[in-house]
């Protein structure tokens, strides 16, 4: 009988624990309801047996205990426990699967965001590249337009330079022919008057001689002015004697007019086209003109040399004047720009340097 009491106590304890488990975990398995029913039925059967035992009905008690199915209740509990464990395992696996799914989903989201960021960055780089290409194309187009306009202006300037030189040559020729003829006629008239005045008396002849002498001086001055104007318009010695003699005469005239010490080195045997000779002469003429106006120099060197190895001709004009800043030349330095343009029009190499020791201009051109 003590075994029956112990079983009743154990089942009561099991029922209490089962109630606590249901309250704390709130399981959803239908077996928990079956388990609770089984435990309750077992407890009622045990209480019935206890009542039979207390009333002394031993035969009925023995018969009831023979039909008592304690093992079936235990089997039911074990079955429920196994199914509960299986359900817990399934729930855990389901939770793990959900976690894994959300992890994969988050990874996919990160991948999509990264892909979108890469796509945006790629589109940005593509736009930047397109903008740069467009800007480069615009810049190249502008540079091409500038080059074309520069070439057009250069060609126009060269044409105007040629036209001016031609007009100068024509004007010089006209002055030489017309004014020279008039001066010659005037000189012949003076000579005729000089011969005629011998018939005059002394007092009258003296007066006429003085006037004729003065007139001759005026004619000589006029002839010198005519020659100087013609040489400035077009150097006649260049066409008749060549570049060396024309430069030599130019240097001598410059030395006489400026009072500077001029040193010249002019090589013989230099043969250049007529246009090239004229351009080099004009460059030398303009350089000497600038020296006389601005350099405040005391010495000038003029060189026209020929390099046999490179088959080039070099014209160099340098002075010991005060010099100037080449990088800060005013826009109105038309003389220097004109010399540079003449050199470039010939396809020559132009060089200009200046400083405290003076200024040096160099032009090198192939024969």
From TrEMBL:
Keywords attached to this entry: ATP-binding, Kinase, Membrane, Nucleotide-binding, Phosphoprotein, Transferase, Transmembrane, Transmembrane helix, Two-component regulatory system
Keyword Cytoplasm tagged: no
Pfam families: HATPase_c (PF02518), HisKA_3 (PF07730)
Catalytic activity: ATP + protein L-histidine = ADP + protein N-phospho-L-histidine
Segments forming domain Signal transduction histidine kinase subgroup 3 dimerisation and phosphoacceptor: 167-237
Sequence intervals crossing the membrane: 101-125
Extent of the signal sequence: none
Gene3D superfamilies: Histidine kinase-like ATPase, C-terminal domain (3.30.565.10)
SUPFAM superfamilies referenced in this protein's UniProt entry, alphabetically: ATPase domain of HSP90 chaperone/DNA topoisomerase II/histidine kinase
GO molecular function, one term: ATP binding
Domain Histidine kinase/HSP90-like ATPase: 278-365
One Gene Ontology cellular component annotation held by this UniProt entry: membrane
Key word Membrane present: yes
E.C. no: 2.7.13.3
Enzyme superclass (EC): transferase
Protein name: histidine kinase
